[in-house]
């Protein structure tokens, strides 16, 4: 079970706005003057948020079987997600045990990607792990969601 599309969109719009804000501030710094930094930062944030609303969200999912208890799986995954991104609290949005993070993916890890990991106990010592990735994609497809999911699986195994 993944997050609702509207929630994913809002998270991605906010994260892309942060990228635009930082990029705008850098350009403002290069062009000189503190006013340039502020105005370019605000413009970058607003432009990125507006542009993100027009982009499609592209998803990718995969699953794996982990031959350990669910708590062990969640602890190990939380460590991997926090090292590669920012964990976000979505505990009130899904009924199953899960972890959600925003990690950088795509070209230069500049495309924020939501990774939602669901844990389903199969037996006392086995856990099925479903990994969902969602990212905004423009004309040039970076396959950010797919890259993010595969990266997390590689680090987990």
Folded structure, characterized:
The protein is of the alpha+beta class and 157 residues long. It has a single domain, classed as Alpha-D-Glucose-1,6-Bisphosphate, Chain A, domain 4. It has four helices and five strands. A five-stranded antiparallel sheet has the order 1-5-4-3-2, with helices on both faces. Strand 3 and strand 4 form a beta hairpin. Helix 1 (5-31) packs antiparallel against helix 2 (34-54). The chain is elongated, with a radius of gyration of 17 Å. The model has no long low-confidence stretch (mean pLDDT 85).
Features:
31% strand, five-stranded antiparallel beta sheet
What topology emerges from the helices and strands here?
Layout: H1 5-31, H2 34-54, E1 56-66, H3 70-84, E2 85-88, E3 98-105, E4 111-123, E5 126-137, H4 144-156
Antiparallel strand pairs: 1-5, 2-3, 3-4, 4-5
């Amino acid at each position: 079970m993944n997050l609702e599309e509207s929630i994913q969109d809002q998270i991605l719009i906010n994260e892309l706005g942060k990228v635009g804000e930082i990029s705008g501030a850098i350009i403002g710094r290069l062009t000189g003057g503190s006013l340039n930094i502020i105005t370019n930062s605000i413009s970058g944030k607003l432009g990125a948020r507006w542009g993100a609303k027009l982009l499609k969200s592209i998803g990718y999912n995969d699953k794996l079987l982990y031959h350990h208890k669910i708590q062990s799986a969640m602890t190990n995954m939380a460590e991997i997600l926090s090292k590669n991104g920012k964990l976000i609290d979505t505990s009130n949005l899904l009924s199953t045990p899960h972890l959600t993070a925003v990690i950088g993916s795509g070209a230069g890890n500049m495309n924020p990607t939501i990774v939602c990991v669901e844990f389903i106990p199969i037996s006392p010592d086995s856990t099925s792990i479903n990994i969902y990735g969602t990212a905004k994609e423009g004309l040039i497809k970076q396959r950010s969601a797919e890259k993010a999911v595969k990266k997390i699986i590689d680090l987990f195994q």
